[in-house]
Every structure is written in C-alpha cells, then in structure tokens.
Specification:
Blueprint (H helix, E strand, L loop, with lengths): L3 E10 L2 E4 H5 L6 H8 L3 E4 L3 H16 L8 E5 L10 H9 L4 E5 L5 H14 L5 E8 L9 H4 L4 E10 L6 E9 L7 E2 L7 E2 L1 H23 L8 E4 L4 H11 L10 H4 L6 H11 L8 E8 L3 E8 L3
Parallel strand pairs: 4-5, 4-6, 11-12
Antiparallel strand pairs: 1-7, 2-3, 6-7, 8-13, 9-10, 12-13
Length: about 300
C-alpha cells in the first residue's frame, strides 16, 4: 500500500492575545487558578476560518514546493465554519487557486486526524497530493462570562500537504477513527448558543479514548509505546495530556504542547503542536510520531507515522 507522507506544514493563529490576567478582570478567576487546572496562560483570538485556514494552507504549499493547481483534494476539518454553506474548503480552494475537489468534515477536535486518515486512504487509492486543513474559531461560540469555558478556547489553523512517501518505511503507518455517541451531550453547542461542557466527565472519557486509540494504532503497526519518539496530542488540557501519557507509559517530555500560549484550538491544535515540535527539532527524519485527538461526539482519532519521505 502506498503510504502518505507529510511534505509541507503551515500554521496560523488569531490576531489578539487574551491572557489569564485579562480574563481575571471580568471573571471570578486568576492566572494561578487557570494554569493549575488547564496549563493555559494565554490564547489567541480573532480571524475567520477562511483567513486563518488560507494562511496556513499557503505556508504548507510553499514548504512542500508545490502549486495549488497540483492538488488533487482539499479536506478541511472545522466545527466552526464561517457559514452554514458553502464549505470553508470551497472558499479556501478559490483563494489558493486550486482546481481540485474540496469538502469540510466535522469531527470536532479530532477532525484533523480524521482528515489525515482520509488523505492516506485517497493517496493509497491513487491521488498524488492532498491538502488537509484543521481550522476553528471557537471564540465566536464562547460565552466570555462563563468561567468554565471562557478560559479554554482560542482560534487557529494548521495545514499539511500529504504526498506518496518515497521510501517504503516512511509515512502513515496506521490510523484509527472512532466515535462514542453516548457521550455526545458532554460537550455541545446548539445553533445560536454557546459551548456547554461537563468538564469533569469530558476529562475522564478523553483520557480513556486517547489511550485506547493510541494503543490500537501502535498494535496495528506492530510497534510498542517505547518506539514512539513524539506524541502530538489534542491540546485541550495539560492535565489530560499528562494523564494519557502516564497510562501509555510514554515519558511526558515526548508530548508536544502549545496549549500554554494557544488554548484549545480544536481542529488546529494538533498541527499547531506539530509545527512547534518540528521547529524545535523534537521530530526528526525516521522518528515514529503519534497523533491522537478527541472531541465532541465523543469522536476520537489516532494516526501513527514515520516522519520523512
């Protein structure tokens, strides 16, 4: 089977920085309280999905050294589209000047990894270049008077170009997509309303599904937790990441995090953390990298890949 490899990566975040101290001016909270419970110090807000997703996509295309007209498909993961329709991917396609198919998917915070899995399938079926974008503007659906949610969310985008791996031992090794709809009411946002969440139960279920999904892709690839060089988890809460890493028996220092400065950016969080890890030299050619995310639904997805082409 032809494996898909990441050849380009780009990110973008909201224009305005909102610190914990800023929130403490209007909420019954403090920097210490927020950091202790979430690991978040500040978040970026502002910008549309089209704007942020387009910025990230252009950087990814440039890094991959391809033109938008070379793309065979654009997959955009978002649960906060700028409009009910048309899809964000359609708008981004036009802005890039691409001539390929384009569609949005909504698997909430695990959506980017869903997109990587779908891109792998399309490349295995014969496509040459797929652009996967994760973008969300959760600040538009956040009640800034609700302490339980206002401290969590930010806006951002990340994009990757996937192409057939040149070497047989590189690229996506295994993927998993799952859903546990019985937990759908733990994290919801109705039309015309704000995000509502049962934080304690989301925490408990998130750790469980992250661990089970990670173990599944490792087993499918015939690898062990000790083989993983870097974990790129969804950036929802540092304590969730810490608990999942402990249960997976992978050292916490192998987890890439940007949560401290971005907050929870939903579909954008994994590519944002990936970009940070690559820029810091935490991911290198030949490394086994685990992507794992969870979100409303409860959706969950994991992808295991060997970095490089």
């Amino acid at each position: 089977m032809t494996r898909a490899a990441i050849t380009g990566l780009g990110t973008a975040t909201g224009h305005r920085v909102v610190t914990n101290h800023d929130l403490a001016q209007t909420l019954d909270t403090s920097d210490e309280w927020i950091v202790e419970r979430t690991g978040i110090h500040e978040r970026r807000v502002g910008g549309s999905c089209l704007e942020l997703g387009g910025q990230a996509a252009k950087i990814a295309l440039k890094q991959a050294e391809i033109d938008a007209t070379d793309l065979d498909l654009i997959i955009c993961s978002t649960c906060t589209p700028d409009q009910v329709f048309p899809a964000v991917s359609n708008r981004i396609q036009n802005e890039l000047g691409a001539m390929c198919g384009a569609f949005d998917l909504n698997a909430a915070c695990s959506g980017f990894t869903y997109g990587v899995s779908l891109a792998q399938a399309q490349i295995a079926a014969g496509m040459e270049r797929v652009l996967v974008i994760g973008v969300d503007t959760l600040s538009r659906f956040t009640d800034w008077d609700d302490r339980s949610t206002a401290i969590l969310f930010g806006d951002g985008a990340g994009a990757v170009v996937l192409e057939p791996a040149i070497r047989d031992d590189r690229g996506v090794l295994s993927t998993y997509m799952g859903s546990e709809g019985r937990f759908a009411d733990l994290l919801i946002c109705d039309f015309g309303d704000y995000i509502k969440m049962d934080g304690k139960e989301v925490f408990r279920q998130a750790v469980r599904v992250m661990v089970s999904a990670s173990q599944r892709v490792l087993a499918d690839a015939g690898l062990e937790a000790s083989d993983v060089a870097a974990v790129i988890p969804h950036q929802a809460n540092f304590r969730i990441i810490e608990s999942a890493m402990k249960r997976l028996d992978i050292p916490l220092e192998k987890a890439a995090t940007v949560l401290k400065t971005t907050g929870n950016t939903s579909s954008a969080s994994i590519p944002l953390a990936m970009d940070e890890a690559v820029s810091k030299g935490a991911i290198n050619d030949g490394d086994v990298v685990l992507l794992v995310g969870f979100g409303a639904g409860m959706s969950v997805a994991a992808a295991l890949l060997r970095w490089g082409q």
